[in-house]
Amino acid sequence: MRPLPTLVFAFAACGALLAEAPSNSPQEAFSRSRWIAEHSATAHFDGGLLGSTRESIAESDTARLAPARRRPTPEGPPNVRISEDILEPDEASGGQPETEAEVSLAADPANEAHLVAGYQEDRFENGGARALTFAVSSDGGRHWGEGLLPALTRLTGGSFERASDPWVAFGTGTRVHYATIAFNETNPDNEVTLSTSEDGGQSWGAPVVVHVNHSRDFDDKEAVVADLATNSPYQGRIYVAWDTVFTDNRQVLRIAHSADDGASFSAPVEVWSGGQNLNALPLVGPDGVVHLIWMSFVQNTIQILTSRSEDGGETWSSPVTVGELRSHGVDGMRTGQLVAAAIDPRRGGLFVTWPDERFTPGVDQIVLATSWDGIGWSAPMRVSDGPDDAPAFTPAVAVNGQGHFGIAYSTFRNDPQRRFLADQYLVTTNSRGRLLGASRVSTHSYDIRNAALSRGFFLGDYQGLVAGQKTFRPVWVATYEDSRLREGKQPDVVTLRIP
Asked: Measured over all CA atoms, what is the biggest interatomic distance in the chain, rounded to whole angstroms?
């Protein structure tokens, strides 16, 4: 099923609507990207954590395709290309053609061979994408079908100019949920939305509004999870968390829930308003306890905090500190510098990972902190094992059915310049809980200068990783395929084929 014909018709019929550009002021038209730029000194947006030594990236082929020395590296296992560039190039839209970015992945808890991914299609340099894509595999990732999420952006029959932050999660039965932020560049309207598939991701209903802003306040960086615990008093409840940036630069962490399979949502609960908050990650334990993990900016520090709810998301405990994030960033790239988190589905242990320079000053490595209850946390430990001068970035974490965790991440360890040639690695634990050496899962190195541009070379603020009973499956953005439109490669969503 590649591509889905009904969705192809939807974006073809509605593409002309992109020319509309409503204005909210006779003096000066509203611009969302300008609004974000004006608030960037005091507020934090997803992917907006810029390293102090970040280089500016010129919009030129020279900057994107400067020559790099490359040494031969052994080929990794075969990677499978998921994305096939559904959209035809449209220079008038302003979106960057052939650019997929920022992928989320979910696995069916009843059938680990059933996978659903979500990602951005045709990224705008100043934020968001022309459309969001879903992809489905029923054979463990060997073959995929994809389509555009319907009724979201104008391109697919919706009302918004742009969408971003795709996040997918399986619900009860055959349901899959797809959370997004949708917004306009030319007026202040923006929403947190949730689309639901009743047939395992093959087709999707219209998005349901989780929260809406008609003011200049902006909802950002949402994530979704469903309570599938059999002994939970709130089994089936869906949680969507996000942050809201107010015009006075307060940045409040919020969460809402649905008790009717995503058809409607509760009023949002403010979990935390101290400091400025970003990167909300909801997780549900085996007993129905909901954990929320996020980053909080207080003065000159970034604290990773967590809170828990034992009444279905109605009330929340005072935040507990997981650790301090000390990320340097990767020069020339927008890597997100966000945390990733997972929970042991059987025992409830929590795993939080992020890029950090504490062990290699000036160069980020991947670190991990763990907890059995969300209250007491281990000290951060380094888990990436590349050379100390090779940045590691954009981690994802998952826990398999045996309680072993895996962490996927990107690294420049095979690039002698440590700047442009990236690879994907996966580190796991053995049956005794000890770290094994990281394994290369990318077929070969890929040049990040062929990626989309968004305040630097942009593969995404996050990437995906899921676990089965014994296995792990990463999904990420790589630049393997030749571009049809320009010299060089194009960024695509790829995965590792696991036998």
From this structure: 66
